[in-house]
Q: What sequence folds into this?
């Protein structure tokens, strides 16, 4: 084979559009010709749509619910929602974690009590629980006195008070750490505040109050709890959206103008994706989609979907202008040649999003629906806007012709073309060897990927650079955890809250939860009953009822339903991986079987967000993994049908799965396991990564001449589409990698893994697709010659004859 430089002039001239080729995209690409014929009308419609989309973007809201990932129609989730409605405590609790070595000193303790009093005065709060809520045992049937007197004593009397505080069974290990250096304040918010727009100012006031009241005490206060986590998710989603838009725009424009050296071509390549982002987000706003941890990545995804194809169209149109065509003729040829591949790339991306519809998670299904809508909008935007911008902005196309020296000055693109030619020649020369290596490599990586275990932690869904995760980790260490685990006890008909059987059932469940390893900080009606019996010598039901009636309503509702037909025994567990929590939950559920047997009329269920996550995350991730496997086979078959060639289907298989198994191996080597974000990233990246494969196969179909050596056609197709593929892969990987600036761990994982998969897809396209295409063509040719010496001249594996090179 000659050196690349010798063959380069023969390789970089594109094939002219052909009418006798079958339409692999059913002629859908011809919608791009509308804007060529009616550019002014198209521009007016575009302006109107952009204005409407801008109003739609303003309508987009944020879904910051921590349960969004597991929201579904399953009985388990419906029960969790029922418990949340009947016992809405944890859903609206702000946990104020106060820590310091001076916590139980007299001065700081007084400042802490001032903080508790001031927090109750904040508008939007409805109750508070702290160490100052504790009471001394009642005497002579009177009202029990507060554990902390109004005026804190001094000297030895203060030391005796601290000893009482540390030994108080109500707060010890529950509201006060065993070392006396951390205390928990539970501040209940009004539901209208926690779910509305007032949450941000209320949380800000809580933070300011804590900082002011504890100033100079040596104590620090951090906030966590569901409302705080929701606010931090909301802030991160809104902040990330701005970052992705700005950085994605700058990177795309910078790389495009460096290589094209003209603002008009930069606008033609980067304009359609940016407008597609506006139109897609506007459509999502009008369709009432809500931003969440997955939908927040829609901006870079739209850029990924549309930028690759707009770059291919720009390169193709530019090539024809270099050969002397007018800009209108060049745009028409680009649409007719590259347009079908653009339709197929968007179709495969759409299939990837459709595959997500089979998930049991509402969040993932919604992400799939939004992705499908965005894909359709991106396809229309690319096919119509790229030629429209080219016609309106590109001036004096004749100056691009070789006579004006433009081609000779096109050093950056020519450098990429020569690199592509060099790679293609090496891959074609030893097609069988590289094909064998590719098969072994993909098989080895697949074997490693199959060993990935599911992983899920609540902390991965919450910004890890803010207060909530840090405060929760402190509770995990010193108060057994911040995540609630609830055991719901529903009474049979005819049984009351204070019946002997009901109290016995509550006591048995409470004991079972306390005895379960990994669960701590257990609270229930039994906690109050034990305290009255042991400290006050009042075990009777009348006294218990008297104290329950005397408690604030918000405190009673934490454990007793409004109708008094159900109670909750609540414990706390640390935020660890779901695989570690599941054995604890299963063990607790099994331990409760004996209670169910002793009290058969009572319905006893273990629930809570942590419980749902532990039970469902592994199964949901496994189903997504199975869907990804099915998707690979289905999309490969889809491409084969579109090209009407079994050979094309086989050729597309290895490069399609290489990014998946390469990314899976990387996850395995880093010990990250398979998380929701990684599965969705691999699912979407598979559809997007096929763009390079489709554009190459489409160009090979057009470039292949009758009786021509397949190797030369492979090289020519590589030279023509390679530079655009390399540029787009780099731009898209950089755009997705911008998510490393996110505060959301799941979004960071999604971004860098998708970026890696995009680069892996580029490697597969250059080093796997080329030799396997050549090798399978050689095998097919031998089989045809062995079957019939006359068949080879009629068809060459689905790639038809073509006309001479150059424009018509």
A:
């Amino acid at each position: 084979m000659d050196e690349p430089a010798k063959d380069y002039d023969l390789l970089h001239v594109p094939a002219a559009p052909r009418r006798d080729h079958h339409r692999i995209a059913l002629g859908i690409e011809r919608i791009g010709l509308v804007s060529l014929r009616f550019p002014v009308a198209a521009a007016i419609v575009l302006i109107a749509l952009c204005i409407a989309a801008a109003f739609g973007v303003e309508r987009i809201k944020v879904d910051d619910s921590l349960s969004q990932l597991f929201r579904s129609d399953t009985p388990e989730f419906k029960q969790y929602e029922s418990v949340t409605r009947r016992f809405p405590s944890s859903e609206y609790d702000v946990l104020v974690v106060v820590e310091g070595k001076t916590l139980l000193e007299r001065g700081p303790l007084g400042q802490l009590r001032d903080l508790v009093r001031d927090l109750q005065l904040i508008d939007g709060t409805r109750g508070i629980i702290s160490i100052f809520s504790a009471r001394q045992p009642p005497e002579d049937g009177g009202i029990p006195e507060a554990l902390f007197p109004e005026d804190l004593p001094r000297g030895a009397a203060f030391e005796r008070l601290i000893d009482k505080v540390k030994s108080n069974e109500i707060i010890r290990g529950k509201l006060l750490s065993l070392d006396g250096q951390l205390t928990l304040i539970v501040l209940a918010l009004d539901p209208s505040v926690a779910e509305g727009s007032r949450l941000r100012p209320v949380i800000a006031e809580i933070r300011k109050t804590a900082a002011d009241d504890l100033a100079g005490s040596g104590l620090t206060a951090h906030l966590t709890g569901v409302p705080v986590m929701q606010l931090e998710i909301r802030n991160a989603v809104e902040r990330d959206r701005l970052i992705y838009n700005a950085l994605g725009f700058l990177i795309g424009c910078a790389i495009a103008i460096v290589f094209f050296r003209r603002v008009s071509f930069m606008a033609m390549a980067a304009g359609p994706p940016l407008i597609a982002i506006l139109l897609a987000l506007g459509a999502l706003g009008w369709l009432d989609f809500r931003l969440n941890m997955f939908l927040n990545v829609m901006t870079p995804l739209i850029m990924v979907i549309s930028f690759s194809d707009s770059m291919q169209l720009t390169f193709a149109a530019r090539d024809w202008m270099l050969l002397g065509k007018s800009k209108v003729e060049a745009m028409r040829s680009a649409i007719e040649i590259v347009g079908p591949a653009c339709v197929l790339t968007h179709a495969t991306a759409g299939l990837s999003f459709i595959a997500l519809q089979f998930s049991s998670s509402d969040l993932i299904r919604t992400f799939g629906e939004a992705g499908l809508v965005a894909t359709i909008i991106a396809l229309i935007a690319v096919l119509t806007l790229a030629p429209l911008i080219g016609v309106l902005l590109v001036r004096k196309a004749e100056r691009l012709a070789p006579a004006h020296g433009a081609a000779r000055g096109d050093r950056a693109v020519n450098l990429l073309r020569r690199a592509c030619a060099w790679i293609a020649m090496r891959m074609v020369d030893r097609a069988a060897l590289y094909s064998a290596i590719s098969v072994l490599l993909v098989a080895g990586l697949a074997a490693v990927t199959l060993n990935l275990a599911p992983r899920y932690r609540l902390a991965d869904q919450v910004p890890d650079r803010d207060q909530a995760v840090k405060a929760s980790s402190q509770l995990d260490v010193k108060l057994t955890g911040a995540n609630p685990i609830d055991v719901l006890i529903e009474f049979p008909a005819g049984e009351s809250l204070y019946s002997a059987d009901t109290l016995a059932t509550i006591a048995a469940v409470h004991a079972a939860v306390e005895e379960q390893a990994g669960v701590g900080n257990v609270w229930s009606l039994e906690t109050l009953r034990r305290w009255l019996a042991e400290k006050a010598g009042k075990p009777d039901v009348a006294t218990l009822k008297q104290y329950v009636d005397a408690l604030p309503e918000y405190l009673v509702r934490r454990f007793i339903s409004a109708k008094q037909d159900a109670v909750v025994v609540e414990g706390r567990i640390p935020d660890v991986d779901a695989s570690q929590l599941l054995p604890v939950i299963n063990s607790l559920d099994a331990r409760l079987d004996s209670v169910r047997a002793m009290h058969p009329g009572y319905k006893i269920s273990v629930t809570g967000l942590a419980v749902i996550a532990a039970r469902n995350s592994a199964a949901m991730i496994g189903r997504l993994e199975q869907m990804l496997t099915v998707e690979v086979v289905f999309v490969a078959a889809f491409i084969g049908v579109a090209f009407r060639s079994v050979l094309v289907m086989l050729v597309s298989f290895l490069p399609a799965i290489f990014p998946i198994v390469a990314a899976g191996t990387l996850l395995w080597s880093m010990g990250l396991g398979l998380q929701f974000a990684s599965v969705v990233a691999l699912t979407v990246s598979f559809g997007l990564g096929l763009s390079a494969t489709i554009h190459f196969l489409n160009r090979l179909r057009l470039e292949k001449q009758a009786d021509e050596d397949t190797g030369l056609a492979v090289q020519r197709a590589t030279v023509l589409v390679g530079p655009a593929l390399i540029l787009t892969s780099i731009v898209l990987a950089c755009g997705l990698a911008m998510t490393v600036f996110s505060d959301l761990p799941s979004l960071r994982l999604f971004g860098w893994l998708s970026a890696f998969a995009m680069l892996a897809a580029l490697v597969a396209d250059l080093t796997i697709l080329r030799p396997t295409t050549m090798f399978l063509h050689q095998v097919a040719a031998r089989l045809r010659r062995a079957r019939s010496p006359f068949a080879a001249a009629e068809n060459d594996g689905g790639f038809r004859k073509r006309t001479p090179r150059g424009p018509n």
Q: What stands out?
A: The chain is about 65% helix and 5% strand. The CA atoms of residues 269 and 311 lie 5 Å apart. The radius of gyration is 33 Å.
